[in-house]
Model the fold of this input.
Amino acid sequence: MCFCRNWHSQTMFGKDISLMGAPWGEIERDLLFVGWGEETINRAFRNVRLEASRKQARTIRSFWSVKKAKKVVARAAAASRMRMNDILRFAMRIFKVRPGRTILTILGIGVSFGTIFFLVSLGYGLEHLLLRQISSDESLLTLDVFTNNQDAIPLNSDSLSSIKNVEHIEKAYPVVNPSGQVEIGDLVAEADFYGVSESYFGASGERFVGGESFSDGDKTVVLSSVFARIFNVSNTGELIGKDVYIVLYLSHKNIIEGTEDIQMVSIEEPLRVVGVVDDPAGNRIYVPFSLIANLDIPYATVKVVVDDSSNFGTARAAIINMGFNTRAIVDTIEQADKIFKVFQVILALFGITSLVVAMIGMINTMTIALLERIQEIGIMKILGVSNGDIRRLFLFEASLMGFLGGTSGLIIGFFVSRVFNIGINFLAKTLGGNSVELFYYPVWFVVVIIAFASIVGFATGLAPSHKAATMDSLDALRYK
Amino acid sequence: MEPIIKVNNLRVVYHKGTTAESVALKGVSIDVNSKEFAIIFGPSGCGKSTLLYAMTGIERNVDSGDIFVKNKNVVKLSAEEQLLLHRKDIGMIFQAYNLIPTLNVIDNVALPLIADGVKRAERKSKAMLLLSRFGISQFAERFPQNLSGGQQQRVAIARALIGDPDIILADEPTGNLDSQSAKVVMETLFNLNEEGNKTIVLVTHDPSYLEYAHKVFHIADGCVTKVEMRNNMTVRRELTKNVNLPVDLLQIKRASSVESDDSVADEEVFLIPRR
Done:
């Protein structure tokens, strides 16, 4: 049997195949059935016949199953290809031929993606920082109610109960804000006092640097962290457990005489410090509202918690109708969001600009690489490398450069952001501020950067690879 | 017997329809039989290279005429068929060697097999056999530019043979070589024809090579002016005696033929003769 020598002879071929026992008729029917056109089938079978030369003779002999035969027919229809690892190996030559140019191009992509990565992670970091500082779930549902005129529209226990009657309001509690003195041991300091209920801490988004909040009815206080400096304690934690004595200044207006009396009220019992909240500037002291409720101090604000975010607007409108003013963290966040949106647009513009520059550089590199290799393309084509493989090779090179550019961009962006963060924190510490984490790296963004960089690389390779694939092999071979 | 290469009234026109139009071949007809050593001889610019490249089917400026290679009309081949023709039926040798400078010798030799998706181990063993046959296996890992011209041309011949084609087309293969290397290359080609039973078509303008041929096509100005049959077997016999190849020829089998399969075994033998 010698069909290999005569593979061009169709009758001979047909005879051989039938000898081999492959169910060709059945395969053909199946292929027609699954929608292959007559033309495609003829083409595929012609290729099988061609392919059925030496190397596949053995495979075809074992064609007892239609399924397996179909697989080979489909593969042959696509014409045989270079192996993926060969394409990879050939593509890696970009590091051998002109390593300097390749690395510079990759660095160009890397710097542009590094810039994008730096800016975006800074944007996310700042947003993260803000949200962590000011918001807990309850704080987003909280409304501060206050009055501009304590005489005309007083905010007191009567108005508190009418506010509590407004629909959708889950709870409402008063905050009083007298000034006064605090005494620890021999030291006395001025302070702003806040009479609050225990719910206040959850709603306001205060951050504890030590200890915890008090419970209503306790004889305890929470200090702001500035008192560590005032009372000369090295560590804020050391404040916890100390006993303090407090004196409140209460003002009483005499409307008729137009005078104001200050009354000093001291609380005789010592109060124990149970928690310290983060505030290096304001000397604030929180005391349980119940402890000073009987002093009949006008309310500074009433904290209102709405049951659901969808009812926030209605509840707020109802309270404003009663004549009070309102303030909410949500407002701040909405404003911050607007700022971040602007920031993101600016950042996107920066990123896109640098990306366009890098892409032009990469197209340039790919075009030059193409020009340098025209003769090589001609040789490859004339030796039987298919146009598709040439195209794949160029596309793979470009995608590889994009991928490596994206990866190096992540590394560059990460290191620059670390250095930047350290610098900022060093500056903040010398100026007495807190150290902060300015950057946040979402995992999805890392993945998107790499994927996008590869896609960009692929896109820049499209035109050169097309040119290479469709080039006339004889012209290419003779190119000087 | 059907000729293995049959060119019928081939007309090749460059830049057709423009003012730069030039007719490279004006109705050329030639036949080359299987196992023949044919030389296309003529001055430079006469169209002899055009004729040679047209036989591979990559010449796109064919105006009229047919070229049959192994009974297939290469003017009308599909892209896939042309690829397979180049991978398996035609080996090409060029004046400028046309090795790829960024691939090492072994990858250069195996390139037609790489294009065909042949596994690495298989193609490597085939390439090594051919390289050792031409006495250059010690350069397998080197890059072409580190080899002399003669060595590079031998690499190129090994590459032309890797797909075990029946036909070798050579375009002035000695043009860049010194006389000693040129002699080695010519004797190699002669031997491939004489004992390897390959059909050889050689393009040259050097009349001293004509003695190797069975048949010489004299071309001038795009026309065949004379077909010279050289049936002087004594000359060839003389040549056979004088041929002094760098390495003794060996009976070489493909590596894969070790797993014997009788239906294809006769195909697995490299067509390289025993001395």
